[in-house]
Specification:
Strand content: under 5%
Radius of gyration: 20 Å
Shape: globular
Number of helices: 15
Structural class: mainly alpha
Mean pLDDT: 91
Largest sheet: none
Oligomer: single chain
Low-confidence stretches: none
């Protein structure tokens, strides 16, 4: 029997990128507007994470498809599982949502309406938007591919949406738009909050996953690594141009080629199969999904915490427990009593 290929390099990359996402949110909440880490981590490096996550998800999904009648149930089953995960984690974060409402200015009715609106069009907790966006993008890309569209055509459509989302989300560009376009953006945001969704963000990257899944061509790791290094530098130059002090940059155009080459390099690395890589994969999902709770734990316990609150100590007090928690959840899920935890990721 042929051994199923393990992409251990992707597991390592996914773990590192999950750490970057968690640290990005630490920076947004706890670091000052003039911190150099806002540019380096928040606006630059962390913007690699979600594009690569989309590509990896699309890659593994479309590797399962054979172009037959079973593809529909495979895609719908996958997307249903993703949406169930979204609902579960939205419920798990209800105590945080209640805390924010209780300490805010909204009335009960306003809080409920706002929560339902966020849940339906984006997410109630920042990082959860990725889950419904992934499900929608996978369905749209599969439908296009199933109806006979070529990979390059889907990628082209996705690239147009990505460019529109990029221009609409970055203040550097949208403040230069005509008044009518700016009013359209205000209307869009009032209903859909952000272009970071399965259409403007997800289609292109999931289509890249489709491309990798159907292609047998693989470039040398060293060449892919060189391409990644070049476009990572291009990303840095871009964010230095479009970012200002204290801003959060969510779309970076050069993240697309950088993510392409990072995936190419990571998927081409041959690492000996070990349990550690599968555990890193599970840890990356726990870190991504659960890390926001640790911000609130730190805040709730602050009155009893003797450690001075600085950017460095806050990072340590959040990131170390997050990683330990993720490791504990993965190891616990390997036991008979904790096997149910796998359903949460």
């Amino acid at each position: 029997m042929e051994t199923k290929k393990q992409y251990n390099g992707l597991d390592v990359v996914k773990f590192c990128l999950a750490i970057l996402v968690a640290q990005r949110h630490v920076i947004q909440i706890f670091f000052g507007a003039d911190s150099k880490w806002r540019i380096l981590m928040n606006n630059w490096l962390s913007n690699l994470a979600v594009p690569v996550f989309f590509i990896i998800a699309g890659f593994f999904l479309f590797r399962k498809l054979e172009g037959g009648v079973k593809d529909r149930s495979t895609v719908l089953g996958y997307c249903t599982r993703i949406l169930k995960m979204y609902v579960i984690w939205s419920v798990l974060y209800l105590p945080v949502d209640w805390y924010n409402w209780y300490h805010g200015q909204r009335l009960v009715k306003e809080g409920i309406v706002s929560w339902l609106h966020s849940f339906l069009v984006c997410s109630t907790i920042p990082q959860l938007w990725y889950l419904p966006a992934l499900a929608l993008a996978c369905v749209l890309v599969w439908l296009a591919w199933h109806k006979g569209m070529k990979e390059w055509q889907i990628l082209g459509i996705g690239a147009v949406f990505l460019l529109l989302g990029y221009l609409g989300d970055n203040w550097y560009y949208n403040q230069r738009f005509p008044a009518a376009v700016q009013e359209l953006l205000v209307w869009y945001r009032s209903w859909f909050v952000t272009p970071r969704n399965g259409i403007f963000y997800g289609i292109f990257y999931v289509a890249l996953g489709l491309h990798f899944a159907r292609s047998t061509r693989r470039l040398p790791v060293w060449g892919a690594a060189a391409g990644f290094g070049f476009f990572l530098w291009c990303m840095y130059r871009e964010v230095m141009k479009i970012s200002d002090a204290g801003s959060n940059t969510n779309f970076v155009l050069f993240a697309a080629p950088a993510a392409y080459w990072l995936f190419t390099a990571a998927s081409g690395v041959n690492l000996k199969n070990r349990k550690m890589y599968g555990r890193l994969r599970g840890m990356s999902e726990w870190i991504y999904l659960a890390h926001f709770y640790f911000f609130y734990f730190l805040n709730w316990l602050r009155r009893w915490n003797p450690v001075p609150f600085t950017s460095k100590t806050v990072s340590v007090m959040i990131m170390v427990p997050v990683v330990v928690f993720a490791w504990s959840m993965v190891r616990l899920s390997e036991t008979a009593r904790g096997a149910w935890l796998k359903k949460l990721i």
